[in-house]
Write a structure and sequence with these properties.
Blueprint lengths: L1 E7 L4 H12 L5 E8 L4 H8 L4 E3 L6 H8 L6 E4 L8 H6 L4 E5 L13 H10 L4 E8 L9 E8 L6 H24 L2
Parallel strand pairs: 1-2, 1-4, 2-3, 4-5
Antiparallel strand pairs: 5-6, 6-7
Bound molecules: 5-O-phosphono-beta-D-ribofuranosylamine (GRF).
């Protein structure tokens, strides 16, 4: 049984998808041993509802070292599921190959500092992109620069707004995240 730690900052619908796909068997041979939030958020409530061990470590300069202290030694994979703090380089290097993130665009486009949530979707529209999508990638010290594991696109139309793009992105994320987790776990 592989042990997954999930990091959240927001509503946690991707966390919910991971919980559900572990339950349904789509993600095999794995359990979430811990959910860590860097702020009060609904993602944390989801963990509580499902009786998953959870902890709130307030965001700030000591976050990465405090996180390092609570991550169980037997952790096989750390999953950033809508997580907004930037992790220290040392932390990313220590967990190299075992830490992944989901990003709401087609990396390497629309990644890097400040490119999160609605900022990404606004930028996609501003740039007149004909497509956007989501990417699951390894986390390295460079923000959104790690190798892609899975990526899927959708068409952006003239009618799209940041809100409709966000919705389309979420659907793609729910599809590729469990697949990417299986891939990294060697399932
Ligand atoms: C997702 O779109 C993810 O790509 C981004 O933040 C969003 C989190 O959504 N990093 P949720 O909290 O999983 O609903």
């Amino acid at each position: 049984m592989k042990n997954i730690v999930v990091l959240v900052s927001g509503s946690g619908t991707n966390l919910q998808r991971i919980i559900d796909t572990i339950e349904s068997g789509e993600i095999q041979n794995a359990k979430i041993s811990l959910v860590v939030a860097d702020r009060e958020c609904y993602g944390l409530e989801r963990a509580k509802k499902h009786h998953i061990e959870n902890i709130l470590i307030p965001r700030g300069k000591n976050f990465s070292s405090e996180l390092a202290n609570v991550i169980p030694k037997n952790t096989d994979l750390i999953v950033l599921a809508g997580f907004l703090s930037i992790l220290k380089s040392e932390f990313c290097e220590n967990w190299s190959g075992k830490i992944i993130n989901i990003h709401p665009a087609l990396l390497p486009k629309f990644g890097g500092k400040g490119m999160w949530g609605h900022h990404v979707h606004h930028a996609v529209i501003e740039a007149g992109e004909k497509e956007s999508g989501a990417t699951v990638h390894f986390v390295t010290p460079g923000i959104d620069e790690g190798e892609a594991i899975l990526q899927k696109s959708f068409e952006v139309t003239a009618e799209d707004t940041p809100e409709t793009i966000a919705e389309k992105v979420h659907h793609i994320e729910y599809e590729i995240f469990p697949k990417a987790i299986n891939k990294v776990l060697g399932n």
